[in-house]
Amino acid sequence: MHAASTVDEARHTATHTATAAPSRASRPGRPRRRAGSVRARPRATTVYSIAHAAAPANYPGYSVMTSADIKIVRFMGRHLTLSGVTLRVRAHAPEVPGMLSARTVLGEIFDNDEAFRLFCSIAASGEAQGGWENGRIAALVPGSQADLAPKIARHGKDEDKHGRIFTALLRKRGLQPAGVPPDADYTMRLEDAGIGLAHARLREGRELTVADIVIYLAHSRVTEQRASEQMRALCRHAGDRPDIGRAVRVISTDEDNHLAYCHEELLRLAAAGHAEFIQRTLRATALAEIAIYRDVSTAVMAHLGRILGWSRPKAALLATGIQAVYLRERLGGWRRMVSLRMPARRNALGGPAGASAVRAATARPGQP
Question: Under the phi-then-psi rule, with left for phi > 0, alpha for psi from -120 to 50, and beta for the rest, what region is 72?
C-alpha cells in the first residue's frame, strides 16, 4: 500500500567516475564488453547518476528522467558504462518483498493523515454498526436464552467502545471522520449477502427465535475470527507505535474475548440439539465471508493506493496477494472459521465494559 518507490530508490547504490572505467584484461573464455553495453539481468534497477551523464533519453534498456541536477536511470543490468560515466549498482527490484511487508504498508498508512483518516473511519463505522446490531439482538433474546442477553449486550458495548477509540485516534491527529465508500463497507456487504440477521428483522421488535440466535452466533463466530486475526496482526506490526499501539492492544484483547464467547455459546447450543444446524450455518457463513473479505480488501487497498500514490506494479502486486489469500481460504482455510472448541477463557463476556477503557486505549505513552 505505499509510496515505496522513493524508499526503494534510496536503497540503491550508484558510483560514477568522470571518465569511462578502465578496461580490464580479457579473461579466458569471456569476451570484453564494450562501453555502452548493458549486461541483462532478470529484474530492473533504479539508480541515481550525476546529471552530466550525457545519454540519449531512449537508449535501449533504460529510461532517463531529469529533475534539477539529478538524473534517474532505470535499466536492466548490474553495470552500465555510458558517455564517459560508469555506474555501478547493487541489483534490486523496484518493488522488493521487504518494501511490501505488512509493517511497511501499515507504516505508510499511519504516517499519512488522509490514509489514516480513511483507515480509522472504516474501522469506526464497522464497529459502531456492530454495536447497534448486538444491542438490538440483546433486547430481543427469547426467554429460553435469557442468560445470553447480558453477554450479547456486553459484546455490543465493546463494539461501541472500539468505534469511539478509532474516532478518538482521529481527534488526536486533528482529523474528522471520512465517509466510508460503499465497496469498502464490510458490515453492510455482509448484510446485503444475507449473512447474519437482517437489519429489517432487528427493527421489527419481535422476539427472536433460537434459530435466529444460532444465525447470530455463527455470523459472530466467523467475523470475530477475522477480527481477532486482524488485530493480532496489527499488534505484531504496529503495536509498538506510540500513536496507536495501546489502542490496538486493547481492541485485540476484546476481539479474543468475543471469539471465545462465540465458541462457548455455540458449543452449548450444539449440546442442546442444534449441532447440525450450527455446522450448516457456519459453513455457509464462512464461504460467503471469505469472498466478501476479498472484495472489500481489494476496494480498501485501491482507495488507499490512490491516496498514497502507489505505482501500478505495486498496487497490482498487493491485489494479487489478496487474491492469493482468498484462494488459500477457499481451498480449505475457511475451515478454521467453522471449528468449535471449548476456549481456555470461559465466560469471557461475563463482566461489564467500562468507558475508562477508551481513555486508557488512546492515552499517550506514560499517561495514566
Answer: beta
